[in-house]
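From the methods appendix. Each design record in this collection lists the tokenized structure first, followed by the designed amino acid sequence. Records were kept in a plain field format so they could be parsed without special tools. The example shown here is representative of the layout used throughout.

RECORD:
FOLD TOKENS (51 positions):
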């Protein structure tokens, strides 16, 4: 498994913010399929020494 970490911009760190994922490039309708598993959104700073 691959773990990706992104810093959330300050303007997005508000109550009620929504996140969405999209696939900007694909092979056409009905070809590319993908899934997200184990999505975590945490409020603590990421510590790279732990992973």
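DESIGN:
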């Amino acid at each position: 498994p691959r773990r990706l970490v992104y810093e959330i911009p300050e303007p997005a760190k508000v109550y009620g913010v929504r996140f969405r994922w999209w696939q900007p490039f694909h092979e056409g309708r009905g070809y590319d399929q993908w899934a997200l598993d184990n999505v975590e959104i945490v409020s603590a700073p990421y510590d790279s020494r732990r992973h």
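APPENDIX NOTE: Residues 1-43 form one domain.
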